[in-house]
Amino acid sequence: MTAAVVAAYEHPYTRHAAAGTTTEHVLTAAFHGVLREAGLRPDDVDGLGVASFTLVPDHAIDLAWRLGLRLRWLMEDPHGGASALNLLQHAVRAVEAGDARTVVLLAGDHLDRAAFRELVANYNRATAETLTPLGISGPNALFAMLTQRHMLATGLTEEDYALVPISQRWWAGRNPGAVYRAPLGLDEYLAAPVVAAPLRRYDCVPVVTGADAVVVTAAARGARAEVRAFGASHNHDGQQGDGLHTGHHLIADRLWADAALGPAEVGLACVYDDYPVMALAQLQDLGLAPDPGRLLHERLAVDHWPLNPSGGQLSAGQAGAAAGLHGLVEAVQQLLGRAGERQAAARHALVTGYGMVLHRYGACANAAILEGKR
């Protein structure tokens, strides 16, 4: 039995959610939204996967109960930017094994100021015991240092890194769901306040409220996205490396071999873009940017190659744990031909996950290559 993603949905992201909004509310809205896209009813769903930082004290089973679901397969993943592809891997395997027939994967959060402060201060024990006492509030300072290290290793300048958010903002202007859509130029980028040198405002993801969802089911006729290959590497260096290589560099060769494709054959990439440097590091590790300068100045700035054509997190927003599912939703919408004005001509898409900052940088990395069939 072949599993495929047949629908994707994003509950609208917002910077300032209405009073009374809850995480359960946005996850529920995404659940019903993706079922409408798939032409399914809740009774058709026998599998559920959930990722959320702020659903607590509830868990996946609580949400399933409130949705009125009776399930054969249930999973919850707490691993931030890597959670969505972890869930996808297990959901595909479950459908192929016959453990479930139709699985909905959900991810999302409502993060007001208080919830966000609590999250960044107590993200995990390493954060609470090691970073927060130093006055490091959130990951900006850590990734500013990593960006400095990347600059020294590659020779890239601040003006070069600017081309990631500028390019993605160009695409966001074609995405009515992006929270920031106005064109972004180099002068405006450089004039923005410095958050942690060399990072400026436009290098850091805006925190939003929202949720995403996909449906994985036994392959049916019609438009669908099938997973050609999947790979993951977690805790690849025990936080002892320099952070310039993610775990993706360990899975790249097998990923492409399993997909029977090369990096040049991928028509679009949705990579986890919490910071421009991390988008570039993943693309380098996976063979899509052997020359990062050429990628930035030619493929992105001139050719408008579709890197994160939703606008990515840098323009569409980061809705907590939904950030890991946002790229998959965009890739599926593209491969199903449902991306509207930003539709790219691509049959294959690369999606990556990256996350769970420990002492210095993300410890989890995964990637999937999807093929669209219509």
UniProtKB/TrEMBL annotation:
Pfam families: Thiolase_C_1. It comes from the Bacteria. Residues 233-359 form the Thiolase C-terminal domain. SUPFAM superfamilies: Thiolase-like. This is Thiolase family protein. CDD domains: SCP-x_thiolase. One of its GO terms (molecular function) is acyltransferase activity, transferring groups other than amino-acyl groups. The lineage of its organism: Bacteria, Bacillati, Actinomycetota, Actinomycetes, Pseudonocardiales.
